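SECTION: protein entry
WANTED: fold as tokens:
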Amino acid sequence: MSCAGWGLLVALKVRAPNRRPRGIDMFFTAVSASTVSSMSTVEMEVFSSGQLLVLTALMFGGGEVFVSLVGLASKWSKMRKQIKNRSRRVESHDGDIELETTGDDADADSRSITSTVTEENDDIPLDAKILRRNAVRSLFFIVLAILVVVHTVGTVAVAAYVYAAPGARQTLRRKALNVWIFSVFTTVSTFSSCGFMPTNENMMVFSRDVPLQLLLVPQALVGNTLFPPVLSACVWAAAAATRREEVVEIARKGREAMGYYHLFPARRCWMLAGTVVCFLAVQVALVCAMEWGGALRGLSAGEKVSNALFLAVNSRHTGESTLDLSTLAAAILVLFVLMMYLPPYTTWFPFEEDSKREHSTEDQLRSTILSQLSYLAIFVIAICITERRKLKEDPLNFNVLSIVVEVVSAYGNVGFSMGYSCSRQINPDGLCADRWTGFAGRWSDSGKLILIVVMFFGRLKKFSLKGGKAWKLN
């Protein structure tokens, strides 16, 4: 896909011939689109409409939902061939038996031997295989319906908003972008969790377009973190509406019978949805608390909340942004890094997958403890908040890497430190004097108290090494 996309991008004309990207940059863009990474080395407005459509096709083909749909189609085709071959074999055996009309015990023995061979070759009854094939086919059409409906409704909704909003329409006119190409490109990019936008500034030019942001948020969630709950809801709705045996089989057995990675049990779906909501709430709260008068300055209250929500949703692998990330506080960036690190279906699930196994209350409470990495991320975020003023005023000494080294060193009871140098101050302080102390010696009292907790936690970490079992990362 990447090589084919690269060939098409090179073959098609760019918008401005004198700004044509180099071959390596074209290939980089094609790989970024097909892997839905949205990493960029060229300005997006360089590409012509034809090249934008090529990138759209690459993003669509590399999207997780489409790839899983191809997998279902392959499984369906394979099962059809298996059932057809088995049916021919059974008919052949029946024909051989009918030809033998001796009428003695040898006929019964022949039937017995034929039946035994057939059972040994195919342990699963033919009716069960047909039912499973029909279930895979039904699941294929349900996923296909979600894919078609989301892209169709999303494209029409985005185009309708652009036509209805003079500001958005003027932005596209100024950038010489076709409304429908923009709508299709944006919808495909958002649902596939790629994050490319046909504008150089990504979504920053639409930071005041709250309705557009709220149209893209559900698309990003359905195509990424909330796809299993949406799929399960559609399966249960189809089972209730049609009452077809194969659809009821999907709803009853789920992933166990279908082997489809994105099909979760009902309890797991509810816990996944709850986990996603909690993650979003924490991120929105932190962005609003720390950037209300900073990066969000100049926006209305509703626009600030909408931008915070849009950033929180896109931090989970989509990557579209309405704000300049370099202007955000370090604590927010650390939280975003953690969110990007976690797989899409990360779930707080303090239950055993095997419901038959009995567990004590103590075991269940122990399973709810967070993992060591989670605690370290929380400590780093907390210290970035307490030292936020120095992170802005003295960035060469106070940076996230120095804080991470100090926290991990305290957690491991090591003692390494990046130290502090007065010569690295951007605005030299005449009263500053170099001292042979660790970096934490320049922190505020609040930061030092947090590091004290980290040292205790690290010394006693053997009591929490089994934490994090309640978090399902697959």
Summary: The chain is about 65% helix and 0% strand. The longest strand covers residues 347-348. The chain has three domains: 2-61, 143-348, 361-472.
